[in-house]
Fold each of these.
Amino acid sequence: MSAQRGTWITLEGGDGSGKTTQADLLESWLTDAGHVVLRTREPGGSDVGRLIRDIVLHHRGDIAPRAEALLYAADRAHHVATVVRPALERGEVVLQDRYLDSSVAYQGAGRVLDATEIRDLSLWAAEGALPDLTVLLDLDPETARARLDSADKPFDRLEAEKGEFHRRVREAFLALAAAEPDRFLVIDAAGDHDVIATGIRRRVADLLAGDR
Ligand code: TYD
């Protein structure tokens, strides 16, 4: 992202991969080190986005695939313009749960839309903005499902999709990471929380040192 002073980190992975836990740990570590951290997410990281999140995750019944892709892209456009970009310009660390890789992996997994088209739509929406680092928490869908089942909260529309869908999501994330190895850090999310957190910190420390 041009003309920025801050650092932009996104977390990606399937539902139940532990993104929230790792974002919490990374946020505390960064804050303790004196960084100003803006914690945010997609969908729903802005005022308009919260309305869109309610539609994409809780609407009863089908949403046409192109409409769904456009709703995520609209959320993204407003979020990047009004939340992410201003924070980066203020020099903050933006720690964000999900970004355009989620659109490619999830909307692409429905097999109706083409991955390149989805990515291009998001890039148009966000004026080409890409994170400095994307942490992919990789986990097999069966383990993730067991975690979600024990979490005792209602499923949203995507969590309720079948196992085959989640296997395609996982493969898509891994393919995205392989295509952009410099941007991605792939972590085995089956391991211990602290071990995972240490791996993420090491990479983030390098990134922050390089920025100075
Ligand atoms: P998330 O907020 O991580 O779920 P939770 O609140 O349950 O932790 O993500 C919500 C869902 O949105 C998730 O199943 C993936 C989906 N999603 C897409 O399908 N496309 C997208 O572009 C994004 C950002 C999310």
Amino acid sequence: MEYSELLELNIDNLTASKQNNVRFDLMENPKLGELFNRLSDVVEESGVQAYLIGGYVRDYFLRRPSKDIDVVVLGSGIRLAEKFGSTIGGKVSVFANFGTAMLRYGDIEVEFVGARRESYSRGSRKPVVEDGTLEDDQNRRDFTINALAFSLNKDTFGELVDPFGGLQDLKHGLIRTPLNPDITFSDDPLRMFRAIRFASQLKFKITDDTFEAIGRNKGRMEILSMERVSEELHKMLLSPQPSLGFKLLEESGLLAIIFPQLQALKGVDSIDGKRHKDNFYHTLEVVDNVRKQSDDLWLLWAALLHDIAKPACKRYDTRLGWTFHGHEFLGSKMVPELFKQLKMPLNEKMKYVQKLVLLHLRPIVLSQEEVTDSAIRRLLFDAGDELEDLMLLCEADITSKNEKTVKRHLANFRLARQKLKEIEEKDAIRNFQPPISGELIMETYGLQPSREVGLIKDAIKDAILDGVIRIDYDEAYRFMEQKAEELGLSKRQ
Ligand code: ATP
Ligand code: MG
């Protein structure tokens, strides 16, 4: 297990051992050490007990750098935050409704909360909150590995409070709920997505008990807002191997609820013994391939959605076998409704995803032996600034089991990239502005906005892309004159 080594490393770091309580070295990172020291002083002065808890403690053992730190106080989190703020001269943001307060220490965000006990009602993920003990507070945490706490008081500084065996679970790479998983998930169904997201980010296994409870409680997700779900999907996509998370989503039954269109990619049909590939697993392979090269969230979304219309476009042809004609067009049309369904922003990011889905097959022609300059110019023009991303997606899309085929395609792509570069340098076609504007055409021939104006403009663009003329005012002007004559237009006197 790769994490156990890391864990041992840090267990070796203990500074002292007192009875059975091991103390961990919170000072190994100087910046954080200074923060914890000053915090500890303020905790003592305030006469309260306080702990570092949750993500920071987990990531300390995993040696993952973390910049957001949670402090739980037996008492008022807001009061301790204010006291700490005035000591270090930092501005405190208070969220009175939540009983929390936040302040920044350099680029670190520290959040304070009073230890609490929560009780949930069936219809909401908002609990009724009362003051509680540290144990109450740990009980309300989502997973054993997220319920670990380090003491900040002087006499116990760095001692670990681990009531649920979270350290062992970290060591074995396990995700499990501290209490009965049916209660933990039913209280707050977001935790089901968090379980899968952590499994994906950390490459951990969700224990059987906990995973089965997700299946039983998946219907609870009706009280969850879709924004929260897509935040988790973003984190899954950005994890080192996103397929891990999406496979778990599918197995748990959650995918079919939140994203039926992606679920529909799963499965293989067979007619006359001919089968097509399973587009769900293919898609996940493409996403993993993209993730190896990029951490651009929206490129990863494009990879996830590139074949989304395949089920709707699937046909069986006795001659051709299985075909998915037009899935790139339909897929790109589906993107806005999918973004809406997942409550994601309907902005230029969405348009970017649409564009990549629409164009995802285009570079394939370039990877064949014979390619015309004209085809290359057209791709440069249509893809514009998205060309590199598009090429990356298209390469990632080659997922044949046959290694030779993959190698051959990739070699062809290298050639295509070379050609793209040559033409680009020669013709500067990407994002070119047409040298003759619609206004100029209208003015020259005394036209209103009309079909003729469009025809002439397109003809000029095509002539440039086909290499008939260069991007040059005089050449384009002469070409306009020719075209206008063919259309029987004469110049305004
Ligand atoms: P990351 O910051 O990478 O998302 P994290 O574990 O720090 O991971 P946060 O959302 O920052 O996650 O939450 C901090 C801590 O609060 C968690 O470690 C966990 O103890 C607790 N927590 C967060 N969300 C929930 C939840 N929905 N249910 C129970 N506990 C939660
Ligand atoms: Mg966090």
